[in-house]
Amino acid sequence: RVIRTLADEGVPFLGVCFGHQLLGVAMGADVGPNPRGRFYGSAEVNLHAADPLFHAGPRAFATQVAHRDVIRDPGPNLEVIGGAAHDDCHVVRFGERTWGVQFHPEFTRDVSALYIDARAEALEQDNGPGAPERARESLRESPDAARVLARFATADMSHLYNVGAWTQVKRVTALVGGSFKVFNTLRGGRGTGEQL
Q1: Catalytic residue at 104?
Q2: DSSP state for residue 48 in the 8-state scheme
Q3: Catalytic pick from 55, 106, 137, 141?
Q4: What is the pLDDT of residue 6?
Q5: What parts of the chain have a pLDDT lower than 70?
Q6: Which of 21, 90, 129, 195 places its Cα 20 to 30 Å from the Cα of 98?
Q7: What is the enclosing helix (H) or strand (E) of 26?
Q8: CA distance 7 to 15
Q9: How far, rounded to the nearest angstrom, does the alpha carbon of residue 121 sit from its chain's CA centroid?
Q10: Is the distance from CB of 151 to CB of 120 less than 8 angstroms?
Q11: Which of 20, 67, 90, 104 is catalytic?
Q12: Annotated catalytic, 48?
């Protein structure tokens, strides 16, 4: 309910991995286990449409992934703007300020390797013998994916966020009972931080 309310209100939102899946649920998408299996390692995302979150970046770029569940069908409310070989709805959008990415822009290649090691048994169980080794072989750097967080959280997108930041902070706090500081960290606004 909160995610849908924030999206309808135009509050900037970026759902990453589980947050992407929660956005899907909030928007009426079909979310569940990927029929193609569990995916860990690096994957290439291909963007189908131009989008301000990926402005000036390549249309195809490496990402880090660690998930089993996906948005299987976006339903009528989400626009699919990017996919991967194992996941057709890897990047989605709602309106002008709401995105979901199944990949992990905060992960490095080394972090992905740790996840593969930690989940090797589950990978092998879901994807067969040798799955952890195949996942490790897929690993590559993903600097373009990492830039997504910076782009979302910086003034590069401020023209989209000019929605009365202080009003939005109060609105979100009333909805979730959270901390202004947590919201500010996720939102990344300079002006908002000065008011807190």
Answers
A1: yes
A2: S
A3: 106
A4: 87
A5: 154-196
A6: 195
A7: helix 18-26
A8: 11
A9: 25
A10: no
A11: 104
A12: no
